[in-house]
């Protein structure tokens, strides 16, 4: 069979479709995989209600210090089923408009003097760190005599801005000795000392909503792309079926 014949055969189109599906599955699995001792976030960027809640939490608790400079408020109108009035009323801080980028009001240069380090932009954090890292980080703050610390990122410059919701956790320390006889003291676990406004499960869902929103702003086109992807796969399936019928019709006399 000629090269043209092989490329027009239904087996070729079926194999191509299977390769495309496999690439999509494994690429998604690679992104979603947990790393190290991180807890699985379980966030769902396609849960629009969760992303909407996360948007409100992000603007209320995160944007005082952090920006998402690649994201416009107005983009959420088409992606998250929100009206312009809802965005303006519930998400846009004072001094900004719906058409503006999500910029913090904190002066970036001065913040380095105030905190020792300027708060990073969070537009792409869900891609660079991963959803599981953000989820575990926001659940791993604990109080010490010197102030807030975190199991995931030791001595963070950012205080625990969600402590009123979660409460105050205290560390349970453990002492271990390595093969060289050196003693190490580390945090074995965390226990709740002062309860917050939310239960543990409610707080976990709150963090999950924030993570879902941060996944969304890291790649807003993902919602439309994956919705379109379903139709692309349906088209490939129909095209493969029609190719098979054409193949049968074309070769039925030749094979005799």
Question: Which descriptors apply to this entry?
Answer:
51% helix; Cytochrome Bc1 Complex, Chain D, domain 2; 15% strand; extended; 256 residues; alpha+beta
* Structural class category: alpha+beta
Number of strands: 6
Largest sheet: 2 strands, antiparallel
Query: How many DSSP H or I helices?
Result: 11
Fraction of residues in β-strands: 15-25%
Name of the CATH superfamily: Cytochrome c-like domain
Structure description:
The protein is α+β, with helices and mostly antiparallel strands. The protein has one domain: Cytochrome Bc1 Complex, Chain D, domain 2 (Orthogonal Bundle). 51% of the residues lie in helices and 15% in strands. It has 11 helices and 6 strands. It has helices at 3-8, 10-32, 48-62, 75-79, 84-90, 108-115, 125-128, 131-138, 163-166, 200-218, 221-251, and strands at residues 68-72, 101-102, 141-144, 147-150, 167-177, 183-195. The strands form 3 sheets. The chain has a two-stranded antiparallel sheet. A two-stranded antiparallel ribbon has the order 3-4. It has a two-stranded antiparallel sheet with strand order 5-6. A hairpin with a 2-residue loop joins strand 3 (141-144) and strand 4. Helix 2 (10-32) runs antiparallel to helix 11 (221-251), helix 3 (48-62) packs across helix 10 (200-218) and helix 8 runs antiparallel to helix 10. The protein is extended, with a radius of gyration of 25 Å. Residues 1-34 have low confidence and may be disordered.
């Amino acid at each position: 069979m000629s090269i043209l014949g092989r490329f027009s055969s239904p087996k070729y189109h079926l194999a191509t479709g299977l390769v495309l599906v496999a690439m999509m599955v494994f690429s998604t699995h690679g992104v979603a995989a947990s790393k190290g001792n991180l807890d699985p976030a379980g966030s769902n960027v396609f849960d629009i209600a969760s992303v909407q809640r996360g948007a409100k939490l992000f603007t209320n608790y995160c944007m005082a210090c952090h920006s998402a400079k690649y994201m416009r408020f107005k983009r959420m109108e088409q992606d998250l089923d929100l009206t312009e009035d809802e965005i303006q009323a519930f998400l846009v801080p004072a001094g900004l408009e719906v058409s503006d980028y999500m910029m913090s009001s904190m002066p970036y240069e001065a913040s380095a003097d105030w905190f020792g380090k300027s708060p990073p932009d969070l537009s792409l954090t869900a891609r660079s760190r991963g959803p599981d890292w953000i989820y575990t980080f926001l659940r791993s703050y604990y109080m010490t005599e010197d102030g807030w610390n975190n199991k995931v990122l030791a001595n963070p410059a950012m205080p625990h801005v969600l402590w009123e919701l979660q409460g105050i956790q205290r560390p349970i320390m453990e002492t271990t000795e390595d093969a060289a006889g050196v003693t190490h003291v580390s945090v074995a676990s965390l226990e709740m000392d002062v309860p917050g406004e939310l239960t543990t499960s409610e707080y976990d869902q709150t963090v999950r909503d924030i993570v879902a929103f941060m996944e969304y702003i890291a790649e807003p086109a993902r919602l439309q792309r994956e919705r379109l992807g379903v139709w692309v796969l349906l088209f490939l399936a129909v095209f493969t079926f029609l190719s098979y019928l054409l193949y049968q019709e074309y070769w039925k006399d030749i094979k005799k």
